[in-house]
Every structure is written in C-alpha cells, then in structure tokens.
C-alpha cells in the first residue's frame, strides 16, 4: 500500500467527521493548518500531507497553508489558537494523543478540553491486522 492511500483515508476521515459534527460545514477560501513545531518535523509533515490530500480530493475550495509555531511542547500554538483564533473555522491544528493527554492533565495553563473543537481521532489498521475495521465514534461538543 502506498503512503498516499493511508493519507487519503486520514484526510477524508478527519474531514468527514468534522463536517458531520459541524452540521455540514463547508470551508470558504484558503484553509490553514497549524503545526505546533518547527518546519520539517512530524507535525509539519502531517499538515502538509493532509492539506495536499484535501486539495487533491477537492474537499477544500482553495489551498491549505501550513503555519509552523514551535514552543512549549505545542503550548505556544495552542495558546495562540485559543486566544487569537477561537472559533476560526478555516483553521486545522495538528494534535496527537500526547496533546490530548497534556490538555487533560492541565499542562497547558488556562486551557481545557472544552476550548477544543475535536474533529476526529484516527489510527491505522494494517492489512495483516486481525481486525478488518475499527469501531468509529463521533463526539460533538457545543
């Protein structure tokens, strides 16, 4: 399986979950993906890859620009999002289970899970897995 196939799945699944929880949200114009790290790392790769797939599948009307914002283990990017970009539907922010754990533990001062619009959590299933599919759950916070 090529790298493009899992990335397509990730982008489509993330966008589909996001659209369903946002009541058929349709982006307007350029989208941005905030990578909470320096250029060239994993978050940068995640934002660029998801952006490319969203563009290739015509799920966004314009380009997806990656913005890198390193510092405090993601804290700088998340603080910026909460203070300057809250409610911005044109912004995606890369995150992981480590990010959600740190958020739950209160390691991002002044931030909590209620300040985040979760669009999805994804994980790969390899061809050799005894589980052909994984259960899916959509959680909406208003």
UniProtKB/TrEMBL annotation:
* Keyword annotations of the record: Signal
Which portions of this protein are annotated as coiled-coil regions? none
Q: Which InterPro entries match?
A: BUG (IPR005064), Bug_dom1 (IPR042100)
- The signal peptide here is 1-24
* The UniProt record lists the keyword Transmembrane helix: no
- In which family does this protein belong, per the annotation? Belongs to the UPF0065 (bug) family.
| This protein's name | Tripartite tricarboxylate transporter family receptor
Organism of origin is Halomonas elongata
């Amino acid at each position: 399986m090529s790298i493009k196939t899992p990335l397509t799945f990730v982008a489509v699944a993330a966008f589909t979950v996001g659209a369903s929880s946002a009541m058929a949200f349709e982006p307007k114009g350029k989208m941005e993906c905030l990578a909470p790290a320096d250029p060239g790392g994993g978050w940068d790769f995640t934002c660029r890859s998801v952006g490319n797939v969203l563009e290739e599948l015509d799920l966004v009307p314009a380009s997806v620009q990656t913005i890198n914002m390193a510092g405090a283990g993601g804290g700088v990017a998340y603080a910026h999002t909460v203070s300057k970009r809250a409610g911005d539907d044109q912004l995606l922010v890369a995150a992981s289970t480590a990010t959600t754990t740190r958020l739950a533990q209160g390691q991002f001062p002044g931030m909590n899970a209620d300040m985040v619009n979760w669009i999805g959590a994804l994980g790969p299933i390899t061809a050799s897995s005894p589980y052909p599919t994984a259960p899916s759950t959509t959680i909406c916070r208003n």
